[in-house]
Specification:
It is globular, with a radius of gyration of 14 Å. It is built from five helices and four strands; from the N terminus they run E-H-E-H-E-E-H-H-H. The model has no long low-confidence stretch (mean pLDDT about 90). The longest helix is centred in the N-terminal third of the chain and has 13 residues, at about 15-30. The protein has about 140 residues and is an alpha+beta fold.
Length: about 140
Amino acid sequence: MIEKNEFVVYYDGICGLCDFFVNLIVKIDSKGILKFSSLQGPSGQKLLNDLKFNTEELDTVIFRINDQVYTKSTAVFKIIKSIGGFWRVFLVFDLLPTSFSDFIYKKIAKNRYKLFGKLEQCDISKFNKPGQFID
């Protein structure tokens, strides 16, 4: 269950690009504030149902801060802001119109399996802190 002041990244657990992104975030989240959940898992599926998203089309990362939900490029920028540090340099792209950032995000998401591969299953071995991965 999600508690207050929790930051949860919901991602496509079988996407090679998503797996790379999550591995990177786990390593650089020096504050240790982020938690993770695969969109294919029970928490991810419940969130998708609650948001009335298609539970079969997992084409966006979702970032949830308590009851606030962000998707696509906005989610990526919010994740970067929460991590802080050097990575904030990438927030320069947040100055672009969201419609443009989301257009680029959708193009990458549409071709992510072709470009970055597809995993057999979600690899949770990267999560080494208790409670870091939700279901």
